[in-house]
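Good morning C.,

I know you're traveling, so I'll keep this short. The sequence:
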Amino acid sequence: MAHTRFTSKTFRNNVASVSHTIVQDALLPLLSHAAKHDWVVDLEDIFLRFTYDSTFRVIFGGNSNNLSIELPDNELLKAIDDGTEAMCLKLGKEKKLIEASKIIDKHLFGYIFSKREELNRGVEANDLLAAYMTSHKNPTTSKPTSSTLDDKFLRDTALTFLFAGRDSTGTALTWFFWLISKSPGVEEIILQELKEVLASKHGSGDIGIDEKKASLKVFNAEELKGLVYLHAALCETLRLYPPLPMNRRIVVNEDVLPNGTVVKQGTKILISYYAMARMEWVWGEDCHELKPERWIDETGKLSPEPLTKFFTFNAGIRNCIGKDMAFTQMKVVVASVMFNFEVGLLEGHVVKPKPSLVLHTKHGLKVRIKERASLI
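The tokens, ready to paste straight into the viewer:
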């Protein structure tokens, strides 16, 4: 059911619209305010707020407003972080996990109750939660279920999508801007691509008077669809710093791996995507470098070859159904932020991974924002 929903044109258009709206109305105004007041901001925190707001709107259809100038505390968001940390570290964290679970249940069951009330009143809704509720069936059995079981299933499903959509994409954006801060050549090529997008709109007469006068340019998903180097740079970021650095698989039936290794039923296989990215025999001697060119073939198109060893989104029938959503969000954010602002890493600030289920930074990404001179 989720796969059908995520691959529909209506859902993709909704994701693109939500991303554009939140970038335009919240993210860019916040960064502009930070630039004018010379704030030092934690870009990781801001990106996680953005991805939370956009994912929340896609799932529940409402506004969570985490990107307001005050950068408000969010009880549910903190509980998700506490729960993740407790599951990762385990020892001595049982109480923290129990408390986090109570808070998560309070909020998610509340959203489920409110959504059911809306639907009962005949309110039309295009969000993911409403789609599950109006199916009237348990997706695992295709049979109607009791409201209690439905609510638990809806809670688990909503939490899964909220966690995956917020943490993975927000983390990827963080590492992207850190890598770009050390790679001015890559930044310059991406900016050139964006200038060409606007130049084509000027040439075709598509740019209106209001857009020419606007101080902040917001790109939409359609404009960015054909940008090869931007897509390649994002893939390269996800290769070097995969949001989920480790994955686990359990053998259901005895099998033989492609290299001839026999694996018995019940065997646990741990796959470190983070380590794979740094193996020369997989990616070459330049495996530690940010090199978007490795994703581009001699004709200037995206090369399919790296995808055979790129498992950040898994592969085959287990391919992540949120992949297109993630790329849509990342492209709109990256293009709009890079085009309007210069992002400078705070001098002396150390950026390194934090031990976690998700590859967050240990100390955040502390930066200063400066408005970029017009590129039009």
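Safe travels,
E.
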